[in-house]
Amino acid sequence: MSRRPAAVFALAPWAFADVFPPDLVARLRQLVDLDPATPFTSFDGPAAAALARADVLITGWGSPRVDADVLAAAPGLGAIVHAAGTVKATVHPVVFERGVIVSSAAEVNAVPVADYTLAMLVLGTKRAFGRARRYATAAEGDPRDWLTGDGTGLHDCAVGVVGASRIGRLVLRRLQSFDVEVLLHDPHVTRAEAAHLGAESVGMDELCRRSDVVTVHAPALPETRHLLDARRLDLLPDGALVINTARGSLIDTEALTRACATGRISAILDVTEPEPLPPGHPLFALPNVLITPHLAGAQGRELRRIGEFAVAEVGRFVQGRPLLGRVAPERLPYIA
């Protein structure tokens, strides 16, 4: 570039403040011209003048969709650096057709999701959440901590991983530190690749029949909707645990509610369908179900890592180097 490149922020003010603290903004200023006081949430009005000279668009949570109209207003745009996870809702396919490079911090955001999943695997198989409630409300003389032969704990479990996505692969890597049998269902992964990941490749029905724990890490696609339906939930062995940190549509909520209400299986859900569940939904009242408000991804102090990655990506772009988080256009339909 013959002139100093310019960057524009397009994300919610809260995300801008948490992902890009002042020292990271200062680092960005060494790379590009920018106005950190105006993270846009709309491409109308004042944003139009900024887009006209933008070489880099830095998007994130709360960004409006980048489509053909936005590209027309930003004729010099060369890269979109997404300081969040999935770009599916942010980037229209026409962006790739125009030759704009798209990068996502999905790999960075995957780390806390995998960590959350592992924590839930450990705590969930110990039945920690239900036992904590029982411990707090037990009458005098009732068991308060553990029962002999209750079959809890992750050791020697069969863990079924649904989807060898970024997060799924991180979970598979973490499971190698545990004495567990790992099963993997992913129609795009060969048996040899699954073995390299430390897992046995199996069909979805077989995974359900054999797994003490099923953890879901597949994208939301028409073919994955209600992947865990009533029939497959019935295949799970008694006492099985279902963990979902992916997308709520992968599990039939009504079927899961019925199965958990019997006490036969348990669930830990960071995502639901619908999301959020309506107040008073029966899943909230079940002692064998834990529902968290979509918090597995980057939160609080973890958000800084996304900002650091985005700043580094901008640096790589202006220096003409390959972007580490580059999104391949053919993968857009299959990402979460």
From TrEMBL:
It comes from Saccharothrix carnea. Residues 48-327 form the D-isomer specific 2-hydroxyacid dehydrogenase catalytic domain. Belongs to the D-isomer specific 2-hydroxyacid dehydrogenase family. Pfam families: 2-Hacid_dh, 2-Hacid_dh_C. GO terms for cellular component: cytosol. This is Phosphoglycerate dehydrogenase-like enzyme. GO terms for molecular function: glyoxylate reductase (NADPH) activity; hydroxypyruvate reductase [NAD(P)H] activity; NAD binding. The lineage of its organism: Bacteria, Bacillati, Actinomycetota, Actinomycetes, Pseudonocardiales. CDD domains: 2-Hacid_dh_8. PROSITE patterns: D_2_HYDROXYACID_DH_2 (PS00670), D_2_HYDROXYACID_DH_3 (PS00671).
